[in-house]
Amino acid sequence: MGDMSDRNRRNSAARIPAARIPATRIVMHVDMDAFYASVELRRRPDLRGKAVIVGGSPRGVVLSATYEARAKGVRSGMPSAEARRLAPNATFLSPDFDSYSAVSKAIVAVFRSVAAVVESVSIDEAFLDLTGAVRMFGSPAEIGEYVRAVVSDEQQITCSVGIGPTKFIAKVASRAAKPDGLIEVPPDQVVAFLHPLPVEAMWGVGDVTAQKLHRLGIFTVGELAHTPRASLRSTFGPHASGMLSELAWGRDRRRVTPMEPEHSVGSQETFSRDTNDADTVRRELLRMADRTARRMRKQRMLGRTISISVRFADFTELTRSTTMHAPTDVTDEIYAQALQLYERLGVEGARIRRVGVRVEQLIDRQRVYWQPQLTDPERGWREADLAVDAAVGKFGPRAVQRAVLTRRF
Fold first, then answer.
1. Does domain 195-248 have CATH number 1.10.10.410?
2. What kind of fold does domain 264-406 have according to CATH?
3. CA-based nearest residue to 215, from 185, 235, 243, 193
4. What is the pLDDT of residues 385-399, one digit of tens each?
5. Domain with CATH 1.10.150.20 in the chain
6. Is the full-model pTM beyond 0.85?
7. Contacts of 262 by beta carbon, 8 Å cutoff, 6+ apart
8. Is the pLDDT of residue 268 over 60?
9. Mean pLDDT taken over the chain
10. What residues does CATH 3.30.1490.100 cover in the chain?
């Protein structure tokens, strides 16, 4: 993520201080801000800054609303009649689910470029397990800001990011970061972050549960945490009372689990400025091939189909792919195929804003048999890649780098 520090942030990250990356699980929750409405505003920039409601016209319920409409009390799921009463001058737009789905898929591709495990909760939010990503991509906050920057740059919409040691903390943090912000909660600051919040801020506590807690005299998460479970059991039952008590202390055993198996691994990078320099593009293709191959080796996966994507300054995009005779996870082999695909495009001189490398048709390495050749050396590029992986895993992403990749663009 070479140009991450150079990006212009509209909102600075709000972060509870942490000196070092903790040796615990790191979970990131990404939530699009007013997703449907934000996608619509790309087509109708004249409506930016105004109350806009998606759905609910002429009847039905509100699907999404801009923050200007929310300031008037409009909420998702609200009947259209009530929304019109609260915001009589709002603009109502019909939903375009094909567009929302296309944007969602593009955003998930960004998530998968930095995290091996992505759990899409809905069309506009996802959990990412960053535990194994920090050695490759930098600190959790850097990864979060990178994701925010790419989503904003590529899709012209904003998202909010929460980072913490559990799914629960990450989700609560992303809510607190809204709109268009980032909050990271280190493990040693979970209680300090969580306990001052109102119980309504807890993930899973809706209006009904909040009202029951209020009747017990419980208004903050800290008050809930210090309430004996026996006092909660008569109102919420043994299971729910135990869960509320555990969550009030930030304890959550749920893991980030992908909803479907990942059939490909890829990486993409948006240049800090559009470029027509072929050497810069080739260098970035090598960086993306290296990043992709390293993720594959970590997952013990091989792949046969190599594809590249090239997005131009006008946001048009070309993709090309090729299939190798044998599966691989070797950086140089993946890069060689990606470079050939790029050269065949014949786009020298065109201004390019983003490139990506992806490997598909993944297979478990243990299921692959290689027929050795008499001319094969005892040690090859794969062994060199594994040695680099070990150094990076122990000392960080800049421990060992190819000389050509130390040059910045």
1. no
2. Dna Ligase; domain 1 (3.30.1490)
3. 235
4. 666 666 666 555 555
5. 195-248
6. no
7. 112, 116, 118, 362
8. yes
9. 85
10. 264-406
**Does 125 participate in catalysis according to the annotation?**
yes
For 250-265, the pLDDT digits (tens) are: 999 999 988 655 678 8
With pLDDT > 90 as the criterion, what percentage of the chain qualifies? 60
The secondary structure of the chain, three-state, reads: CCCHHHCCCCCCCEECCCCCCCCCCCEEEEEECCHHHHHHHHHCHHHCCCCEEEECCCCCEEEEECHHHHCCCCCCCCEHHHHHHHCCCCEEECCCHHHHHHHHHHHHHHHHCCCCEEEEEECCEEEEECCCCHHHHCCHHHHHHHHHHHHHHHHCCCEEEEEECCHHHHHHHHHHHCCCCEEECCHHHHHHHHCCCEHHHCCCCCHHHHHHHHHCCCCEHHHHHCCCHHHHHHHHHHHHHHHHHHHHCCCCCCCCCCCCCCCEEEEEEEEEEEECCHHHHHHHHHHHHHHHHHHHHHHCEEEEEEEEEEEECCCCEEEEEEEEEEEECCHHHHHHHHHHHHHHHCCCCCCEEEEEEEEECCEEHHHCCCCCCCCCCCCCHHHHHHHHHHHHHHHCCCCCCCHHHHCCC
Catalytic residue among 68, 125, 284, 333: 125
The token pair that represents 16 in the structure block: 């509870």
Residue reference for tokens 């800049």: 398
**Under 8 Å CB-to-CB from 217, ≥6 apart: which residues?**
223
CA-wise closest residue to 200 among 183, 181, 182, 223: 223
Amino acid of residue 117: V
**CA–CA dist 227, 39 (Å, integer):** 43
